[in-house]
# Entry
Amino acid sequence: MSDSPSPLIPIPRGPLPAIPPPPERRLVRIAIDGQAVSVPEGATLLEAARGIGIDTPTLCYLENLTPVNVCRVCVVELEGSRTLVPACSRKVEPGMSIHTDSERVRLSRRLVLELLASSVDLSAAPAAQAYLERYAAHPERFGPAASTAAQPVKIDNSLYVRDYGKCILCYKCVEACGVDAQNTFAIAVAGRGFEAHISTEYGVPLPESACVYCGNCIGVCPTGALMFKSEFDMRQARVWDESSQTQTDTICPYCGVGCTLTVHAQDGRIVKVTSPLDQPVTNGHLCIKGRFGWQFVETITSDTSPPTPRVAP
Amino acid sequence: MVDPRRTSSAQWARAWLGLHVGSDISLANAMGREIIVSGLAHREFIEHATSGFDPYRDAVAAYTLERAERDTGVPAAAIREAAHAYAKAGRAQICWTLGITEHHNAVDNVLALLNLALLTGHVGRYGSGLNPLRGQNNVQGGGDMGALPDRLPGFQHLENGELRAKFERAWGAAIPPRRGWHLSAMFEAMERGELTALYVIGENPADSEADRHRALRLLEGLQCLVVQDLFLTRTAEMADVVLPAAAGWCESEGTVTSSERRVQRVRRAVGPPPGVRDDIEIIYDLARRLGHDWGAPDAEGLWNELRRLSPMHAGMSYARLEQLGGIQWPCWDESHPGELYLHSRLWHDPLIGPRAPFSVVEFQPPVDTLDDQYPIRLTTGRRLDSYNTGVQTSRYASPLRRAETLDLSPHDGVRYGIADGEKVRISSRRGSVVAPVRYDPGLRPGLAFLTVHFAEEVATNELTVDAICPKSGTSEFKATAIRIDKFQEN
Amino acid sequence: MDLRLGAEQPTEEERSAVDGEVGSGERHRLLPVLHALQSRIGWISPGAVNHVAARLMIPPAEVFGVASFYGMFSLEPRPARAAQVCDDIACLIQGAAPQHPHVGCLGLCDRWGQPPALHAGRLLYRVGKADPASLRDYIRHAGYKALAKALEMGPDSVIREVLASKLLGRGGAAFPAGKKWQAVRASASPTRYVVCNADESEPGTFKDRVVMEGDPFAVIESMTIAGFAIGAECGYLYVRGEYPLAAERLTHAIHEARAHGVLGGNILGRGLSFDIELRRGAGAYICGEETALFNSIEGYRGEPRNKPPYPTEAGLFGQPTLVNNVETLINVPGIVLDGGAAYAAIGTAYSTGTKLYCLSGHVARSGVYEAVFGATLRELIEMAGGVAGSGRLQAVLLGGAAGAFVSPQELDTPLTFEGTRAIGASLGSAVVMLFDDTVDLKKILLRIAAFFREESCGQCVPCRIGTVRQEELLDRGGQDAIPILREVGQAMRDASICGLGQTASSAIESALNRGLLHE
# Structure
């Protein structure tokens, strides 16, 4: 840097930078519910169905995670296949003929929803509730003695709670904690069968685990099993009112990555922070500061007292 | 991964080069020499787009791998491997943070890295480049907007008469024709008595300046200190006037610019507490009191004014920022998508604009030298859940947070007879603080680590040296010579 | 990787147990390491998990997740040795007391009453005749002739003969073995694997154990031929954890074979390189599912993978993999020696060769019976001395817990893949378990339902919860439960990820369909 004004400022324009084009994807012809469609090679049946406006239910699928196809609510009928196939992960193959709303499909989807709703608390899972209605599910027919995953809520830190009585074991939190986002691996699936559950090693409390409180597990949880402590407390106090909340997209106040934050506010106060899946920088994943570090703006209390004024600690 | 500390990121890396603090230039020059002597330099690119290669080659000739091993403590073989991997990669980026720039020779450190990119052609192409990773959400935007001593918005040089005239016409006011002071120069000017009034917006220099003892003395000596902040910070406590300000990211409208030059909208999600106002409102009001009525404060109107004056922002209307989820500058007009990477011009044939120069830079060890009295190298940084002087982050209850500790290699703990958790007095040539020791196996012997997150308890900047990079004005926060002594409670 | 470990430290004994098994220090050593801890310490402690995590670079939560998957590992202190009393169906009808928790079938169903019977044909002729510990004796009984001939023939000819033999996989799915061999052989990837599935865990099944204990070299030789044919240099032999004697004899056989130049580098001086690593399962029925087995070997939870991709494209460690079970593989030497056409002439047009059956329950002489495909169920029962117990047959469980109950009216069904399919049953793992008319079949069905509930890996909803509901509904009984039971069964069959869930309702539905369940 010399002391004289640099002729390089402003920078002279060069050719428009571009991402090298991805390799051409061949189009594959398949039939969905009798309708012929062409979709790019490598696409999933879910993408193909959504592409023509067919609303396929999903619980364990999320755009920013690797499909694990464990909930099986997205199954569709593939002609020639002995069993139904998961739309979220099955890739299109030339000549496939798919039925997304056959009797068999509807039965399996309804049963999956009934099995889940009869064993876990779906009260904080609006998407699942809507599916239950759509498929006319009657989970109560398994009777009052049906085993459930009911258990006490785990409250072992100040930022978020884990209510595994609401957990449908969709693996999303494990993926978000692991290779799909955070690479922290604080939690894994432990045990087997109906006893399978999300756990730290030996179930140690989060503060003794590898958890870094990025909260990306909360961000992907579809049932409210993982919940901000702020939201949990307000729900307990019966002051949580989603209908009166505003959601505003802005940018995280901390580092230079530029993650989009969706600020959820109720009565003019921030109640939680999420991040949209389609934000181009980190696909909806955040760190502890972005997700939880907003409390400096004002102190949230579960009662109706006015915000604590901003004075230095 | 090049870092004196074996951080979490270093543990993920294919290779970790744990160099001595401040020996970056020797490492970079040795990599440059190795790339040249191994025939891995990108000859076509160098001939096409650069200048000054010969003097560079001659200068780095002295930086043999063996010499670099002596300077940096990194095994020669590891340096060689890193050089080869970088040069042979199809796409390669160099990313850095304050470990490069918080040094007395910050700009030289950066130039040494630029040399490597020029040498290999890893610049101006998709997936390649040089990335200073920004530590704040709008540190890039601040520079973009002209918060630099010698620049007007859009990096237009203040001392360029033509550019200055453009702004003077738009603003109807004369702009001083000479550059101003950067932060460190301001403190020097305070020392000389040339700077007597200071208006601080969103900064806490009482805690964040190196050689805090001196900083506090100079701030106290000011005739007038105005602080505009969200909080009554340590600096604000010293102020004559405090202007309570809204949180820029959620209580007001505007833009920030991220590390990747992406201009993004911030939006008002909640209203500020009573009596607290948006930065723009405060400044407009101030202007009015000073006799200039700028009208009603309006973030989008201000932004559009910038777009008229700064060609690199011209195409970024609020509507487009909304639609595209942010735009990376430069964005020349409303049909321009913004630029994914910079310097594409260097690959154009014929070359557009001037050649990119190699710079001859030499290794200069840190100013605060180690000796028998101060044998330990202290470096500073952040912890995941905390941020700068802790003004924001102290207000949420992080389960990860632990009080300040002097992180020390277990080897040094044994050597100095200090147990894990034991309180020690930490002294530098400027001051001393008391903190408990925490053994950190990620630190090599002779290296210690503190943050600046807990200035109330441990005022780390009592220790740091105010050695300044003359080109950037940055202090050498990263390299302090310290001593540790057993602490006797009185 | 950046590991964060808990504060617990390993004991010296734990450290030594782990360090002795760490080997290459890669994740796939996890199962052997956990076995070493379990057998030496008696349980897997937090300190031990930390040490395992650090040595293998696996996050402790994942080590715990894997260890807690397997029935044989204890995560609480417990004596190093614990007796297990089987209370699975074959033992239940002999009067075994129900255990809490249940102890799944240990594959010793042939041990009730008298010495186990063995009816040998072309597959079992060495069992009980040749010393299973002696390679010399194996060779004296025509061992390694097939490998020598295969090396002469070349890989493509070997595969041609296996194709010509029409050998169908004996693991339950009856897939043409030659097609698998051909697909792996044709793969573009230079790294391929042979996996021998010796995780025989289907209740009432013990034939592969008899082969492994009685003729271990045959398994080794067969795998070597497979490795040669498909171009693999490495084979994994995954033996059920409950089969310690089989594992011991196979381990010995592998050492012997290496020492005598028929395994390892430069086999028979012909430049062929193929070696076998034996892995012990640890008490998880699901690991008999081929992709769960891969995950288990790789050091992950034994959860089945979604297919496609099939193992022949992306199997063990993501590489093309040939998986065959023990019985399938030991057919190969005979095919190589006699030629595929000669083999195909045995049995029926579709079901070629001979088949090993596991007879147990109320049968006069329980044991393994080798019979040419096409023999009827009645003939097989007569070979075994007829119905025991009350002498009045109520039902036969054919194919195992995942199989079907057949009624006494169906005894003339020819035992072939096509014959059993025609009556809505399957050969499955060739279990033939007899129940006399004194048995309360509902108890048997409840035990089968409990088995699937306990052995479900828990990954997919239909199986994880469906197996629970199936057991509850069965227990609840009553006419209103039956339609729900059938719907649960259909959802498990249609929507489960793997064969476990898909067949978990099979035996129960077969009993319902045949009116065998009396409410």
